[in-house]
Amino acid sequence: MESKGTAARINVSRKSYERVYDIFEFEENQVVEIKPGHTISTYLLHQKHHDVDTLMKNKAAENMFARVNLYDPQSFNFKKLILQKEILTIFKSIAKGHYIDMVHFFISVLDYKEVMDDSNRYEIAKELVQTYLDESAPRRLKFKYMANAFGPFQLKFKDCNATKCPPDLFTNFENLCIRSLQEVFPDVVKSPIFESYIEKKKKEDAYGLKALLKSSTSNDSSLEDQEEEEKAFFLWCEKCGTEIINLENHRFNNFEFKQRISHLLDLSNWRLVFENEYGKTYFSPEGTHNHLSNSRRHVEIKYVYEIQNYRAEQVFNAWMDDSAFSTRLEQVESSTFIDFITDGKYGHAVYHEIYSMSFPQQNRELVHAYCCRYEQDTDRYVCITRSINNPKIPETSKFVRAEVKSAFLVEQLTDTTCRYYYSIIFDPNGWLNPEYFSSSFKETLENNFHAKLMRHVERFEKQNRAPSGGLVQSLKHYQSN
Predict the structure, then answer these.
(1) Which residues contact 392 (CB under 8 A, 6 or more apart)?
(2) I need a surface site. Which of 51, 220, 282, 436 has the fewest CB within 10 A?
């Protein structure tokens, strides 16, 4: 039954009327005598209140959010929500003071990332820097630690030009904006505009609204949505917006591998500290912010060398083997495999490692997670690592808990040559300053990391055996999923 807009009398039973009276608009029933002694009830049908599909959708939406308080800021995944254009429009109308400039800057950065060519991006970037970031900028963003954030950004921006201007140039400022705008969010959810947005979203895009809530997953989510989900496990320094280790992040994912590989291959402005005929060793650019689990700043060391007469697979096999622990990080005197954790296609091995220190310093311990993968399209092997917390190894007074973060990549160049990249940040913590590891760095032609790695590879190859240990398990898990 469907109204076409013309009023008409119809004959329905009382039971039929009760089924549809809340969908259609009827006038009071009239009793009509059709012949002596026989009457029927009729109803004047005016129009539909709403069609059945809409009614069912509304009912489904109400059920979907029955146990969710959509006006509680804690119900939402803010990092997803803040990317919605309608929400940013609401923020523009609600924000006050210096938050207004943050909203406008954040919107401009999102637009900047959508620009496809470097030349146009570079022009936009220059305007954003002049307007919001430079020390003399008329609308300079007022973050608590603006100087800390602007320092590492300047290094990246100086390397930009009309032919090279990456979409992620403003990532650290994006992170700081998200953190700051989250402070305004409680005022936003109280506003009538936000209430209208929620009610409209419930009616027109209930599943889209659900995707903005915390712990919301979707099997058919886009790659962009999946990346946002993966980024949710990362932490960012409150002072400069760069990434810090989340010691409670017990998973590895595509986003982390992508970021770590990109950083590993980047040598722009890195400082050469040693070289020989096989390759070079670098320190990270001066002024960069390299963090572990806190805001302490470290110098990162990176090795880029070529190896003759060994294939990438042979080098990686030697690297994965449990006998390689003191090659990967000198002064590690023991390494014990304690756990293996899987999440989807990635699995990581957790090791408890003891780092030997000279008297009177106390020995350090590491709870160190290793995750491996093989990229068939590029024929390269990758292992990324970071410190992690694990209930099997609680902290004790016996050791000082140190932290580490590293990445190793080896790729085939020719039939007889491969190249590896290896970067590492190590923090002994305790009373020692964050520069301890880099300040004690010393390489000579006779005694250097590359020479030690080559000795290990040659020794392992002579044993003529397959590698063993948790790193091998990690690679096999990836290859089988």
Answers:
(1) 338, 339, 350
(2) 220
